[in-house]
Amino acid sequence: MEFNNLLIEKDADIAIVTINRPKALNALNAETLSELGTAFDALAQDDCVKVIILTGAGDKAFVAGADISFMQNMNAIEGRNFALLGQQVFSKIENLPKPVIAAINGFALGGGCELAMACDIRIASEKGKFGQPEVNLGVIPGFAGTQRLPRLVGKGIAKELLYTGDMFGADVAFRIGLVNKVVPVAELLDSARELAKKIASKGALAIRLCKEAVNEGLEMEVEKAYAHEANLFGLCFATEDQKEGMSAFLEKRAPQFKGK
Ligand code: DAK
């Protein structure tokens, strides 16, 4: 796959997607969003890839937001189309049948923070800087930030961050539950790789069904969500991985999962 704004690297069963517009702090224009959609479609289909890491090129930014110069002169219809494109791509990542880890190496502002929130797990370097500064530009978040932020950090804190547009560091992001952990700058990618390898060593189907149970269950009434979980649990018994996992435990050996 060749892209103008992305780099894709594969390391065994882990793929690293790097947004590569460092001169614009990796800001998201329509082409970059479309390429992300294409790349994640292909990675979803690639049986060799079990976990994906998403990061930004350079040492300053994950993604500094939607591209302001691209948005500046949009009319209402173009604005709506741009927001819909971003929402579709971010939903694709959120619902991808594989885990996606955001490795946040600097600014994750506006659309960048929203992109990180669409990932399953967020690891930040100590230089991570977060915020939803859209109100400073006279707009609201357009890539579902008003929805994902309160679901991650709670309604009160989300409203304060959305209303003030304040930028905050990785320490605050960790305290409010926006990121899973904070690591030194030099350790960011190794830390993301280590976590990705651990997840990749488990049964890929079980991970996929966990993701489905969490994502879909959280949008359901709780009794229905329990029933949904029970159905997905039942589905595990149609897999070779369940047979292998339980046999391996009883035979006191490490399981050899095939993702089947
Ligand atoms: N878009 C385009 N270019 C950007 C950018 C961005 N978001 N952020 C930075 N850049 C560019 C700068 O213009 C500069 O370009 P040159 O002047 O060198 O050509 C280069 O990256 C380096 O930036 P700075 O010189 O400003 O670097 P500093 O270290 O001084 O400052 C900063 C870094 C991240 C604090 C600053 O660049 C900054 O405040 N950037 C803007 C951050 C921001 O406001 N992000 C949120 C964008 S709004 C919607 C759809 C989507 C959205 C909303 C609605 N609908 C369609 C409804 C989402 C909106 C957003 O994400």
Q: Can you give a write-up of this model?
A:
The structure is a single chain. By secondary structure, the protein is α/β, with parallel strands linked by helices. Helix content is 48%, strand content 16%. The protein contains eleven helices and ten strands. The strands form two sheets. Strands 1-2-3-5-7-10 form a six-stranded mixed sheet, with helices on both faces. The protein has a four-stranded mixed sheet with strand order 4-6-8-9. The two termini are 26 Å apart. The structure holds 4-(N,N-dimethylamino)cinnamoyl-COA. 4-(N,N-dimethylamino)cinnamoyl-COA binds next to helix 2, helix 3 and strand 6.
Short description:
The chain has 260 residues and is α/β, with parallel strands linked by helices.
Q: Kindly provide the radius of gyration, computed on alpha-carbon positions and rounded to a whole number of angstroms.
A: 19 Å
Shape: globular
Strand content: 15-25%
CATH superfamily of the largest domain: 2-enoyl-CoA Hydratase, Chain A, domain 1
What is the H/E string?
EEHEEHHEEHEEHHEHEHHHH
Number of extended strands = 10
Strand order of the largest sheet: 1-2-3-5-7-10
So what's the oligomer here? single chain
CATH topology of the largest domain: 2-enoyl-CoA Hydratase, Chain A, domain 1
Q: How many domains, as an integer?
A: 2
**Helix share, percent:** 40-55%
Instruction: Characterize the largest beta sheet: strand count, sense, and whether it forms a barrel.
Output: 6 strands, mixed
Mean pLDDT: 97
Instruction: Please give the CATH class of the largest domain.
Output: Alpha Beta
